[in-house]
Predict the 3D structure of the following.
Amino acid sequence: MSTSRKTTRRQILQGMAAVGAASILPSASNRAAGFESANGRPVFATIGLRNQGWTITQKSFRFADFAALADVDANVLGDNVEKVKMAQGKAPDAYKDYRKILDRKDIDAVMIATPDHWHTKIAIEAMYAGKDVYCEKPLTLTIDEGKQIEKVVKETGRVFQVGTMQRSESEQRFLQAVALVNNGRVGTVKKVTCGINGMVASPKIPVAPVPDGLDWDLWLGPAPKVDYRALPELREGYGGGVPLYSNCHYSFRNWHEYSGGKLTDWGAHHVDIACWALGASDTGPSKIAPLDYSLPVAYKDGHPTVADQYNAATKFNIRVDMPNDVEMIITSEGDNGILFEGTKGRFFVNRGKIVGRPVEDLVQHPLPEGAVEAVYGGPVSENHTANFIEGMKSRKQPISDVWTHNRMLEICHLSNIAMRLGRELNWDPDKREIIGDEQANSFLSRESRKGFEIQT
């Protein structure tokens, strides 16, 4: 990626006043109905379009107009331009280089759904360019990236929504779960178990030709320069049309170079709800202990020793010591979802059900009126994008803000570090560092590849 188009931080901040002023508009009578711009709607752009990128774009047509899309895969970009054109009657502009979107003054906000290793760079540069940001989970690749993002949100005053959509889930099971805990329906919480599934190991994945239309160097971006790898067998269903085994599309979650396996995938959802219910969204654990786990390849000093197989943990049971003597278990075993256990009972919640005696008791002993709204901080938004736009209008942070997200994501990142090093970690939630373990602390950050540093 050439840096010849680099904009200085001074130039960006000078342009922010006009952009920011244009974003602070009077509230509409209908919540999230849109800005009072030329056509009454905010202007969005999406960066990263495969799978979840299209999902969040599609869910946002009701509230916003999409002026531009960006993706490093020309095939994905072209397909999505056509889908957006069909949905809104006008084709968005298409770019391989996301920075061309950030240069545009007509775009109010960006939605980011790239692989995880790109999130922080794009999000920070977008905020300095005067854009509000919706970024998919997990927000960061490392713990220190979360601190960087928090600093820039505070400095720029941009509104930032993280895509942990369970907080705005339409069926409101997770909001009800938090309300049950908050209203003492399980008594004092003693244990919470987050079932987040495991993953399968891969066979050896050979070096392969880069697919036509994919800019592999730009896909890697801040990550180390490596060969593209893939097996010819194609994936079916969600994520279909791409190799079943690769180090790129869809499978990137199984590589620590780009993501954090199931811990930062499903973990970013269920650990989030658990921390919310426990009231631990502004603090953190004291200890993370990997009880048992399986890594698919050999590791040395916390780093995989081979480059041709998935390297994120396949199975795991991790104990996390949370405030108030609550034990959290993060496991690849059992049903996907969250089990809350307290002195008065227990219940289980996931995307398909909420079950247990405290739930059954609601027939005779319902929650107080407004209990769910109290959890959400007001009337529950129609969906996660609606909540984001409400925040853009009010200039208040949405329901999935960066601070609470990073606090719970630290648990997921620390769990991965503990497994990679094969030992328990003691965590200082105030200093946000690992206690007495210099080697482990070295995993809190990661250096970007030369030429792909964050431009400030």
